[in-house]
Amino acid sequence: MASATNHPKTVASHVRPNDRLGRPLGVLRLSLTARCNLACPYCLPDGKEPPGLLTLEQRLGVIGAAVNLGARSLRLTGGEPLLHGGLEELIAAVQPLRATHPERPGLREIALTSNGLLLTAERAQLLRAAGLDRITLSLDGTTAGSVARMTGLADTAAGERALAAVLAAIEHARAAGFDPARGALKLNAVIHRGANDDQVLPLAALARERGLELRLIEFMDVGSRNGWQSEAVLSAAEMLEQIGSSWPLEPLGRTAHATASRWRYQDGRGSLAVVASVSAPFCGDCNRLRVTADGVAYSCLFAAPGSGLDLKPWLKEESSAAELKLAIAALWNQRSDRYSEERNTTKSANSKHAEMAYLGG
């Protein structure tokens, strides 16, 4: 889907830790598959893989290079990553890249984002045993109808089954040792005005009841298929006002490089987070590099189709780890993306974006 924009001979030999705006590389979001078992209208995956999926060895090469360049967090994504049969093997194989001392560079966490439908009790245990630290599950409604509508399922009966599966997955993850009190288990919800904005309070109530941090995400213009319009965005401020009117909140702020601003319930019943990419962009300290399942690196979620760097030329047997590291460094060094801050400018008007399921969200 994209071609290499550099060649090993042209990659600069000097590796800088920051991009053109002074942002370091801190998070690698690695997509394992573009396929999904749902068809959420804000994502709309292809339902098939791009050609040339990376092998386990190639993925480990990409992760190793990113860690050497400063990545301390690895998030495994899709599509739906639980569709990838080698998931546990990959997580186990990454363990030697962990930091073993506070002063030793290395991975600090390995996380997974999933819709939860395939997270059985056994799978949760296997993931934990392999070395996964955190799971974020997605749930965009608390009723069969809202779940069916937000996942592209055929009817309320299918929505009921999906809802039950996600609620069970939460408990499977908890039982496997993913403790929400330590931030190891969270719940994502994309809110689309006119589609599921009536679910903000019910989702907050569900999360409070189950002791989970709920992360409310503004509907974003990712890809070119979801019919995004600014009028469909329920802003983070509006969500917070709704929830705060029922359960008063106090701010915890947004830590450096984080996507979410966090809030604490004043009654002590946990926390809440909002991802306000549209209404309050956080491009200024974005530190995320995305690599697709077929090995194309993108430095922005809102990148244009075909604009990524195909890493496969540096993932051949005859290539060295040093060459791969320099290729990724060159991409990062020339990065100046800040689409969300420029969303309403002439520069970004009518721009096309690569699809979310391909980029890994």
TrEMBL record:
Key words of the record: 4Fe-4S, GTP-binding, Iron, Iron-sulfur, Lyase, Metal-binding, Molybdenum cofactor biosynthesis, Nucleotide-binding, S-adenosyl-L-methionine
Native organism taxonomy: Bacteria, Bacillati, Cyanobacteriota, Cyanophyceae, Synechococcales
SUPFAM superfamilies given in the database record: Radical SAM enzymes
Example GO BP: Mo-molybdopterin cofactor biosynthetic process
Residue stretches making up the Radical SAM core domain: 20-250
The name this protein goes by in its record: Cyclic pyranopterin phosphate synthase MoaA
UniProt cross-references to PROSITE patterns, sorted A to Z: RADICAL_SAM (PS51918)
A Pfam family it matches: Mob_synth_C
Organism: Cyanobium usitatum str. Tous
The keyword Magnesium is annotated on this UniProt entry: no
GO molecular-function term, one example from the UniProt record: metal ion binding
